[in-house]
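During the reporting period the student researcher (J.K.) took over the structure-prediction task from the postdoctoral fellow and processed the backlog of single-chain submissions. One of the processed entries is reproduced below for the supervisory committee.
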Amino acid sequence: MSAAVDHYVFKAKHWQEEIIRLRAIIQSTDLKEEFKWGNPCYTLNGKNVVLIHVFKEYCALLFFKGALMENPDGLLIQQTQNVQAARQLRFTNLKEIVKYQKQIKACLKNAINIEQEGKKVELKKTDAFVMVAEFEKALNKDKVLQKAFSSLTPGRQRAYLLFFSSAKQTKTREDRIQKCAAKIKSGKGLND
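J.K. obtained the following structure tokens:
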């Protein structure tokens, strides 16, 4: 048990009972409890397997390699269309956790097996993501921006590409590109 997770549970204003129950279920496995990204995280041999996280409308277990997991009951959810590897089990109350305890344990066992087998999720390459015409034009116009963007990590590149392409209007895309140009040139990611 992690003292940081104990503190997290003690301070939880919402979902405290649900967190306690999910934590107890996970602790019945061989996963090591840690505290990462402000959340209880459970690892196997230093590899992230599952995370407890809470939102306004629900609490969830986030399985890092959920895309590889079996999902016979259809309970695993892809958060957004851009999430490639992770999948969630969402709960809106304690009764749901009790009701689905068997499925939760099966998901944990499946996730642990996937990690033990060393399986990896095949992620889309950066060039598979849409580059909006406005950004392509900006890169062609500004060679410093072009060089800086190509120097970013693939994850940072994807974040920018997704951010730019999610805007529906040309003006919004151009504004986003203009506002992000300095960050890109300084080697920073969208959320840095």
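The committee noted the following: The two ends are 31 Å apart (CA to CA).
J.K. will present the remaining backlog at the next meeting.
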